[in-house]
Amino acid sequence: MTRMRRWLPGLLLLSPSIAAIAIFVYGMLGWNLQVAMTDRHDEISEGRFVGLTNFVQLWDQPRWHISVEHAVVFTLVFVGGALLLGWLLAFLMERGIRGEGTFRAIYLFPMAISFVATGIVWRWLMNAGTGERAVGLNALLDGLGLGFLQWQWFRDPDWGMAAMAIPAVWQMSGYVMALFLAGFRGVPDELREAARVDGASEWKVYRHIVLPLLRPVTLSALIILGHISLKVFDLIVAVAGTQVVTDVPAVFMWVAVFDSHDPAKGATIAAYIVLSVTVFVVPYLIWSVRRERRES
Amino acid sequence: MHTLTTGRAKWVTDNAVSYVLVALGGPFRAFTQPWNSNPKGWVSMRRRWMPAVALVGLLSLAACGGGGGDQGATGGESASRQVEVYSWWTGPGEADGLKAMRGIFEKQNPDLTFFDAAVAGGSGNNARAVLAAKLQADTPPDTFQGHAGAELQGYIKAGDLEPVNFLYDELKLKGVFPDQLVQQITVNGQIYSVPVNIHRSNVLWFSPSVLREAGVAGPPATIPEFVAALEKVKATGKIPLSIGSEWTLTHLLESVLLGSLGPDAYTALWAPGADWSTPQITRALTDFKTIVSYAGPPQDDWQPASKQVADGEAAFNIMGDWAYGFFHNPPDGGLGKQSKVDFDWAPAPGTDGTFMWLSDSFTLPKGAKNRDGAVAWLKVAASKEGQDAFNPKKGSIPARKDADPALYTDYLADALKDWSEDRLVGSIQHGVVANQPWLAAINEAVGLFQAGQDVAALQAALADAAAANAQ
């Protein structure tokens, strides 16, 4: 009885979210996978089980190759850019900049904006007009005498997705800064002092003391940014709509379901997105479970 | 959607949102200011999250339950009088037209309430996605807007729509709509929608001043003349042809196909088993490639692309005649430009004598709550009075042949005349000749072409799309 009193309230409190997650996350994941393995290529047919056919056939579609390439470029630029910029900002803050609180707030603010609002503003900033017709960033470059840097931004067929990652970096680097700042502050002063006493230069303190201690924070940031990046949809649609030139798997999924009316294809793409996020998240989960076990 | 309109349910949903915000407030502070917490702050933060997550879960379940119960209690009575009209007319002009038609509807049917269920988004992309969810859940609106023609094929196949032949017979609509239109929207002897308006897709908009500057005598009548004119404009440094986002290229493609192939061969493309691999199509697509090579930087959508012509930055733009309202209407919805001075028009090169049409129409979904209300709406939409109230505001012409010509001036007078005299063919991009999956495949092929400029790949993709989707 007393034992029940200990775990029952907790379970009761958690049960709504357990039920909701069981149905709306795992239930839907299972349903999606089931649809992906049928030939339900329109909304009317019931769909027969076809195994992994859809997963294989998707690779025959040129658009799928484009969207995967785009997702890779976007992820590399976005995750790399946000990590570097966030780290740099946190580093400068940590060096004791004056008015730190103000700067912190300024860099964090973009995070409070939705990707849709960000996208609409950046769509204008990244207007493709050059020369006399330049507006937005191209006009800014022109004004700075850097007119030769003007380009088509996200409409460039080769490097457009790198441009598309810029608003995402702008929005999320403040968040990464917050993570790193917490990490910096978490490094005990005693360790730094001990290293300095032993004659380590300031650079060596960072290289051998602070950076290794920041590894868990970096990993968390990597996971958070990585899964945002692989699922990105709202930003792309707000900037460019559902065009092939800026296609990513999530946008392709939308087109497959709502324009092509092909549920099986949409579900297959969704399954690939989940799979790619899993590649990021599962090693992290294993790592953190192991660490917790080691610490306890 | 109905539940949201009834008072109590709305109160519940609104308040659920504020509960969630309050519940998130505490942890959010810990989340955004981790530097203020101790080195183990992340652990304590996790503990602080848990009750909030549980609370959010509870509240959202409660909100769902509340909303559902409410529907049963109060939904029935009001639904019998309410007519949910689902459209994507939210922009300037079109929303005014809808309001004018609504006024007529409410005057004729004092016992019915008009419920405007419009979903914003040009060309109805968002509206169709939301509609798909409503149809899937078997909760169709009483009547919904769709482009007349093949766009409705999916709904028809899924058994979502009831034929409206009885209305055509009762109102004698077959006599007042052009025969070619009635033929082209009839599927196996059945008609599934009532066209409210007609737009023309194959219009070449041009800037008279840019053409003068480039030494082009007038709008080009054929595709070779068009290419020569584009070349002359290019030499002046102006944009020869303005384009918008991906779909505006498909829009351009349909005019080029029609101009290069002619109306018979163009129409034949949409029949099952049509041959898309002919040299004629290769030539048309090569023309398309040549024309696209003169395009300026792609704009965000059709409006900024058309605006380049009206502003004298670009010479040509091939866009539907909704551009006329955009050019001509006073600022705050339009550009306030002067017709024949700032902009002028002609049929797209090689398409004179052919009217490539598209039409907004209303349907009669099966299983809707208020079928009689929907039929009453369709009667207004089909009537001369309804169409003459709607179209001058929307900037389109009525589908009926007996409209009052005095209401349609300037460009619209031209369009009205051509509508009654020209050969009619259907648009691709705007849902007349290709069903939705087919159109998606065509847009994809055009998008891939934009990146690779490969005519053979475009033709192969178009042939595949036809083979997979023609019916």
Describe it for me?
The complex is a heterodimer of chains A (296) and B (471). Chain A is flat and about 75 Å long. Chain A has a single domain, classed as MetI-like (MetI-like fold, Orthogonal Bundle), CATH 1.10.3720. Chain A is 73% helix and 0% strand. Chain A has helices at residues 2-36, 53-57, 62-94, 100-108, 115-125, 137-143, 160-186, 189-197, 202-231, 234-240, 249-259, 263-295. Chain A contains 12 helices and no strands. Chain A is mostly helical and 296 residues long. By secondary structure, chain B is an alpha/beta fold. Chain B has 3 domains: 2-79; 87-200 and 358-426, Periplasmic binding protein-like II (D-Maltodextrin-Binding Protein, domain 2), CATH 3.40.190.10; 203-357 and 429-469, D-Maltodextrin-Binding Protein, domain 2, CATH 3.40.190.10. Helices cover 55% and strands 12% of the residues of chain B. Chain B has 21 helices and 15 strands. In chain B, helix 10 (208-214) packs across helix 11. The longest helix of chain B has 41 residues, at 41-81. Chain A binds chain B through residues 13-14, 16-17, 19-20, 42-44, 62-63, 66, 104, 108, 111, 123, 127-130, 133, 152, 155, 157, 178-179, 181-182, 185-186, 188, 240-245, 247, 254-255, 258-262, and chain B through 32-35, 37, 39, 41-42, 50-51, 53-54, 56-58, 60-61, 125, 128-129, 132, 136, 154, 157-158, 245-246, 297-300, 313, 436-437, 439-441, 443-444, 447-448, 450-451, 457.
List keywords for this structure.
heterodimer, A: 296 residues, mainly alpha, MetI-like fold, 12 helices, 0% strand, flat, B: 471 residues, alpha/beta, D-Maltodextrin-Binding Protein, domain 2, 15 strands, 55% helix, disordered N terminus
Give a quick summary of the entry.
The complex is a heterodimer of chains A (296) and B (471). Chain A is an all-alpha fold.
CATH topological fold name of chain A: MetI-like fold
Beta-strand content of chain A: under 5%
Query: Do you know the CATH architecture of the largest domain in chain B?
Result: 3-Layer(aba) Sandwich
Secondary-structure-based class of chain A equals mainly alpha
**Record field, number of beta strands of chain A:** 0
Number of domains of chain A: 1
Q: Which shape of chain A, going by the Cα principal axes?
A: flat
- The parts of chain B where pLDDT drops under 50 for at least 5 residues are 1-77
The CATH C-level class name of chain A: Mainly Alpha
**H/E topology pattern of chain A:** HHHHHHHHHHHH
Mean pLDDT of chain A: 91
Q: By CATH's scheme, which homologous superfamily of chain A applies? A: MetI-like
Helix content of chain A: over 70%
